[in-house]
Amino acid sequence: SVVELDRVAGESLDVLVNGTLIAHGEVVVVNDKFGIRLTDVVSQVERIKKLK
Predict the structure, then answer these.
(1) In the structure, what pLDDT confidence band is assigned to residue 14 with cuts at 50, 70 and 90?
(2) Which residue has the higher pLDDT, 31 or 2?
(3) Which pLDDT does position 6 carry in this prediction?
(4) How much is the pTM?
(5) What is the distance between the alpha carbons of residues 36 and 5, in angstroms, rounded to a whole number?
(6) How far is the C-alpha of 46 from the C-alpha of 26, rounded, in Å?
(7) Which residues are CB-contacts of 16 (< 8 A; sequence separation ≥ 6)?
(8) Which residues pair with 33 in a beta bridge?
């Protein structure tokens, strides 16, 4: 998928899917391309709690 980023390399960000927080990460650059390195994934139990 292509994701639009409004951050620069090294900045932290939240990863949301359909408005639900699923992970925390940081912007990285690899071979002149931007990516997101996940630093913490929200547990399945916490994700389910947020759906209710």
Answers:
(1) very high
(2) 31
(3) 82
(4) 0.70
(5) 10
(6) 21
(7) 22
(8) 30
